[in-house]
Every structure is written in C-alpha cells, then in structure tokens.
Amino acid sequence: MRDLIVVGSGPAGATCARKAALRGLDVLLLEKSRHPREKLCGGALNPRVPKALGFDIRPVLDREVHSARIHAPSGRNFLVTNHGLSSYMIRRNRFDSYLVQKAEEAGAQVIQDSEVVALQQTRSAVRALCRGDSYESHLLVGADGAEGIVARESGIRSSWPPNRMALCMAADVSMDEADIRKLTAVDGESDELAMEFYLGTVDWGYGWCFPKAESVCIGIGCRMDRMRNLQVAWMRFLKRINEEKGLSIRPAVEDTFKVPVGYPEWSLVGRRIMLTGDAAGLASPLTGEGIYYAIVSGSIAADVSVQAIESKNAQEVLAFSQRMRKELIPELESAEFIARRLMKSTRSLEIACEVAQKDRIIRDLIIQFVAGSRSAQKSRNSMLKRMLIHHPLESALMGLG
Length: 401
What we know:
Elements: E1 2-7, H1 11-22, E2 27-30, E3 44-45, H2 49-53, E4 63-65, E5 67-71, E6 77-81, E7 87-89, H3 92-106, E8 109-111, E9 116-121, E10 126-130, E11 133-142, H4 149-154, E12 165-174, H5 177-184, E13 194-199, E14 205-211, E15 215-223, H6 230-245, E16 255-260, E17 269-270, E18 273-275, H7 277-280, H8 291-311, H9 318-327, H10 329-342, H11 346-358, H12 360-371, H13 376-390, H14 392-398
Parallel strand pairs: 1-2, 1-11, 2-8, 5-13, 11-18
Antiparallel strand pairs: 3-7, 4-7, 5-6, 9-10, 10-11, 12-15, 12-16, 13-14, 14-15, 17-18
Helix pairs in contact: 1-3, 1-8, 8-9, 11-12, 12-13, 13-14
C-alpha cells in the first residue's frame, strides 16, 4: 500500500510527486508513455515558474525573452518590453523529462509505459488498474491531462463544456538563426527576440510564434464553441506570416491539441482523489497558459497529501479545494473577466491594442498581470481604473463602465 499514486507525469504530476516524496511520502508516479515523449505545446513559461519549482531549470531552457510583440486585428503592431522579467522558452519533451528526473531524485518511484485504464475505490484505498498490473494507495492525484481518465472514473467530471475548452493547431518548425530572427527579432539592430501574438487570427483566440533554440513554435488556438474551420485559419495564418516576414514556412508535421480555458466551476476533489493541472481545467482564459498553474496545483496537492497521511484522515483532501480557491482561482477569475471584454469582438481587441500602444502605464499593467508580479485582482482593478479615468470612451465601447 502506497501513500500516494500520481497519474500523469507532466508538470503537475512530476511536481506533486517530487514534493510529496521530499516530505517523506511513499509515492508512485505512473506515466502511460515513455520519456522523453513528444508533447506539442507553445512552450512559453510564465516568469514565476522557476520560483514555483524551487530548482534551477536553466539546463532545459532554450531561450529567455523579455519582449512580446502584439499584432492587432488590423495588422498594426506594438512592442511590450520589460528587461526585469524573463519568459522562458522550452521544449516540453526536455522540460517534462527533467521534472520527472527531479521527482525520481527526490525518492518517487516512476513507472513508465503504464496506462491507467480504470480506478477502484475501497473503504480505505484507491486502486489504479493498469494494463497488466494494479497499484493501491491511500490517496491519488489525477495529473493526466484534459482528457485523462481520473476525472471520469472518479465521477468528478464526465465532460467539458464547449466554452471551457480550446482547440489549438501548431507546429515546431526547425529554422536556422537567421530565419528565427526574421520571424521574431525585436528590431533589425538588436539581438533580442520577442514572442509574437496575433490577435483576431481566430475568433476568441490568437495566433503565436515563440522562438526556441533551433525552431519556432507556430500555432493558433480558439475556444471550441467559437471554432469555425481551424484548418483554413491555420493555412491563412501561415500565408500571412510568410508574406509579412519574407519566409516560406511549410511545416513537415503539424498537430492539434486541446487546452482547458477558464476557471473550474466544478469540484476538484473526490473520495481520496485530487485533480491538478489540465485535468482540473487550470489554464488562463486569456492566454491559455497552463504550466504555471499545473506546477502550483501539483505543489498544493503534495502539501495536502502530506497533511492527510500524517493525520490519517482522507477527508483532508477537501483542503485542496479550499487552498485552490484561495491561491489560484481568483487569478483565473480575473483573467476570465478581462478575456470576456477583450475577446468578445474584433472591435474590442482593436480598441484595446490602440489604448495599449499609446499608454505606457496600461502596457506595464499588462506585464504585471501576465507575470504575476502583483495580485491578479490588483492588476485588474488598476487596469480598470486607468481605463475609466483616462480612456472613458474606449471603456464604454468595450463595456467596462
């Protein structure tokens, strides 16, 4: 009998397993595939990620960038820069493998090629049934992604509302440094690169180009209830950036993946079970970024697991929901508030870009919000106050009044 089984070894699962093992729990981490596994993802890490992890991630960083270029629906663009903050570009196959390595070093047992196909509840345990074997523990954490089995088998959540899921199409395109610079350079004189965000490319979503060491992740994503023809939008986006940047990008491989967006309006716990990361629906409704929220939720699940095992009281898992509602959900709610006003129309996006382009304070507040250098509620309220006082017409047109 284990103390804790963690299903899924992405950022949420590996973080949970590592932290719980460091604090003395007998932890088993189950992964259905084998690392290093391919995982298509934008791969842009929130500046808060290194602190949330608590160890050096430089061995698996491709780049650090300090700027983002925002392209308005009309085609004009502007640069947002903060040299005091870094966004980190990673490839998920290397990053996830590194986190699993850290979990093993902490004492967690990792079993790969072990897909969980069912769960069984007993009076005092949870049993994870895999192909060819089964494992039993006092507690279980679901970190198996947006379409994982733990949420369904535990009865916590059976499906996703269409407005809480986004569909993305993307490709990691190998490029030499000259072409990477053509696509993402801050300007012709600087060696700095920027993340590129194309607003209005799709309804209730955006396109992106994120520079890595020897490639650029190019993608688009939109909320599924607003999705029309993603393939057509993808081809149109590739044509646009080829024409604008003087390139001839033709991805050899492209793929789709789903990302939960919004904040959880459902339970995050079941009997002896907690959901983390994408399995819990933790990703920004504004950007779709989920790695930071995965790591923090995995860390909280580890804390709660230790508390429950030490007290010999499985009811302690209820504290997971309480801490999530206190520490993470308010930020996602604030992002939802902003997303609803920005994404509701091309006109709203255009107005917001126009204001941000001419108002440095608004740009700084955007950086603070995305980087989490202030609380989400304070950042949101400061942006609203600035808009209402200094840009009242634009505020009225966006429905902020």
